[in-house]
Design goal:
This protein has about 210 residues and is of the alpha/beta class. It has 9 helices and 8 strands. The protein has a single domain, classed as TIM Barrel, CATH 3.20.20.70. A 4-stranded parallel beta sheet has the order 3-2-1-8, sandwiched between helices. Strands 4-5 form a two-stranded parallel ribbon. Strands 6-7 form a two-stranded parallel ribbon. It starts with a helix and ends with a helix.
Amino acid sequence: MMTVMERIAATYLVPVVVMDDSAKAVDAAKALQKGGVDIMEITLRTGAGLASIEAVAKNCPEIVVGAGTVLTLEQCKEAIAHGAKFIVAPGLDLEIVEHCLKNNVDVLPGCVTPTEITAALKAGLSVLKFFPANIYGGLSAIKALAGPFPQVKFVPTGGAGILNLAEFVTKEVFAVGGGFLCERKAVNAGDFESITATCANAVKIVKEARGF
């Protein structure tokens, strides 16, 4: 049985999902899965985040659901209690990292500088979120950072889309995150078919780029 991180690496795609209505969470999860993506990062940017994580965790066991935009230790604990299998934070909060590691929950903190990466490595991590990727130098920055940090792999979020997705399939990238895989407006409109189509297209692009 694959671990959470192995599942993420295999799928290579981490949809960043903003839910405004938790009643649509299961349909959104099923739309992703139908398109070949079994990972779902539901952000805590809205009041529906925790209930959405819980709904997916309970009703879609085949989906690996995690919590994104986790800013505090309290949010981290709540997300795990609601069923989150992994935690994603925009920055490096060592309290959050330590809590997750102690409780065997995978955590992806945002790190874009050598100092942050060093601190994350010291804490015991080797896979890090790189956000916002387009602002902090994108792939060229990631490849430059891989020089002194060859043991680190990154999950860039921000700047990746269908048109440039193939460029992100490199040895330095662990997986690619983004809202483009499950657009907020599509979820709110109930347009789950477009989400499935986007995911299927993304899966095809990744497979071709990886030579599968």
